[in-house]
Amino acid sequence: MTVxxxxxxxxxxxxxxxxxxxxxxxxxxxxxxxxxxxxAEIARFAAAASTFRSAELGGRSLxxxxxxAIAPVVLSIREPTDRLFRGAAAxxxxxxxxxxxxxxxxxxxxxxxxxxxxxxAGRPFGDPSKPLAFEAALAVSALSLxxxxxxxxxxxxxxxxxxxxxxxxxxxxxxxxxxxxGNRQKASRxxxxxxxxxxxxxx
Length: 203
Fold this sequence. Notes:
It is built from seven helices and six strands. By secondary structure, the protein is mainly α. Helix 4 (67-91) runs antiparallel to helix 5, helix 4 (67-91) runs parallel beside helix 6 and helix 5 (96-110) packs antiparallel against helix 6 (134-144).
């Protein structure tokens, strides 16, 4: 099934978390599914990310001309990224056991980039005049999450279980997307209150 890569699917805050969130309902064995099950979606995701993550990418577009060929590398970065930062969000710090596979995966994503400068201050994704391989951009985005206070601002949405970067001033953001997950939780609480009230009335 073709995925509609709408803005809501980019509420992680950075490319690496958006990519981690392409596995929907992680932890729910009965309902979870992978939006990258069809590798063609990797190219479509990369094209959408070029727009929705333009600020992070410094205006550089993402290239994924052979999605089936790069799928193993993309997934090998996505999964340890999710494991490392989901664990850090839950425990307050990353586990050493999760760091080594994460770093190896990011190195694989950057393999083949040669001498191209990536990670420079103000231009972390390099020269915006030419496309950047999606797997390389994914590695740079994931590595950027290790910097400074960034890791401590990664949250897990209590509604959909997606990872997101909380950029609010006082680090108090609760949902990946208030318009979607926040409203769903509010509606659920309202329904439960009304049901409880009806049950009391019938006692």
